[in-house]
Input
Amino acid sequence: MSLDPDIEALLEMVEAGTVSGDRIPFPQLTAAQARADFDVSSPLLDVDPDPLAFEHTLSLPMRDGTTIAARLFATAAPNPETPLPVLLYMHGGGFVVGSLESHQPLCRGLSQGSGAAVLSIAYRLAPEHKFPTAFEDALDALIWIGREGPAVGFDISRIAVGGDSAGGTLAAALAIAARDDQSLPQPVLQVLAYPGLSAWPQSESYSRYGSGYLLARETIDWFFGQYLRDDSDRTDWRFSPLSAQDLSGVAPALLVLAEYDPLVDEGRDYASRLKQAGVDVDLRLYAGMIHEFLRMGNVVPDALRAQAVIAEALVAAFGVSPAKVLQHV
Output
């Protein structure tokens, strides 16, 4: 299918600098400047549902003695007497950009659509915090849910892990880690939205869509350069889940991919690897879409349709009824 006309118009506006001012590629910015640019442009593209009945920012303790911020979204205040299933969500942004704010509308919408609690975490970013810090922060958040979740009002027998882009990388790695350590809460679903899964992108889609479709090859290389300590990190499954030797026994997966994304082939490859390992996989490929489309509800209807698909998958995995469907679908 050809590129969606609304996406094509958006790309033209981005190139012309009419979306968020003069567009300077991330590799020409400092990490701090890139983060500011990302956070400014995000609200222009996404539909933000009304605030939920319960939204709370909290600090999660890490094993190294530090804390990270997190934001909890729920349609009602969690209660230990009637615990809620929970989605642990990691935002995208190449391990360098992205925040609780940039992904607030998405997390709010997923909680609203599924009736589940969504815990979004602000894992520490590169280059200040190199690999494997982001993974360790995500793992610590999962450990925290297992330890404190029942008192907070989470049903830790009904937990999912999810994320988009680099957040999808982290979610896939958490699913592997949980398979390997049964003392961790065991996800019943992993939600991977256009995840990065390979450390050496050499696919056809990487070549074909690596320029002119928002996520450029040069930006991916810059992200890798900011996050990785050296090339030896590239073969670590915590950064490159496709490098994992064995994927059997990990949680069932929902993969949401975009046709015009340099990462789409590695998403397909991962879905195939999971299926070969006996893992249940639901692969949704959105024709005409680009990387990051999930947070473009102001631009394309497929963004909200895909959010609804994720919410429905959570409902099915958790065995609950949604409190409220997404209003804009």
User: Anything to note?
Assistant: Residues 323-329 have pLDDT under 50 and may be disordered. DSSP finds nine helices and eight strands in the chain.
